[in-house]
Structure formats: C-alpha cells, structure tokens
Amino acid sequence: MADLTPTPDSPGLHVSKPSPSVPAQASAVCHCGASATASGDTQVRALVEGWNANHGSAHGRK
Fold first, then answer.
1. What is each CA distance from 44 to 19, 48, 54, in whole angstroms?
2. How many CB atoms lie within 10 A of CB 32?
3. Which runs of E-coded beta strand occur in the chain?
4. pTM for the predicted model, two decimal places
5. Using CA atoms, how far apart are residues 3 and 24, in angstroms rounded to an integer?
6. Residue 1 pLDDT more than 60?
7. Each residue of 13-58: pLDDT tens digit?
C-alpha cells in the first residue's frame, strides 16, 4: 500500500482508524503551507472540521 501521508508536494488530509478500539490519527498539509497532526477521536474530528472550513477546497470558495 502506498504511503498516504500528505506532504507539501502532495497536500491533503489523511485519517486513519484501523479499529474501533484504536484512537484515530490524522495529518494534513495544505497548499497554503499550513500543516497539522492530531491523535485521538475528538482531536481528529476537530482537525477535519478545521480542514473543511479553512483549507483544501475551502481556499476556492468565495
């Protein structure tokens, strides 16, 4: 399986939760230069909400 971790050359959002008993993990890199990581279901949820509101395709919204 390919490494799905976002990088400045390949920005994006990656979330992993291999099983219900394992805390979620996430990493994000935006083309604007912002980056973040999160561990734990609550923190990952906040990272995803922030990404959707402020990064990725949000940069194209008017």
1. 15, 6, 15
2. 11
3. 12-16, 25-29, 35-39
4. 0.84
5. 17
6. no
7. 999 999 999 999 999 999 899 999 999 999 999 999 999 999 988 7
The strand pairing partners of 27, in sequence order, are 14, 37
Amino acid identity at 25? Q
| Sole residue written with tokens 């990656």 | 14
Contact (CB, 8 A) for 55 and 34? yes
Q: What residues have CB less than 8 Å from 33, skipping those under 6 apart? A: 8
Nearest to 27 by CA among 39, 41, 13: 13
- Residue with structure tokens 């939760």? 17
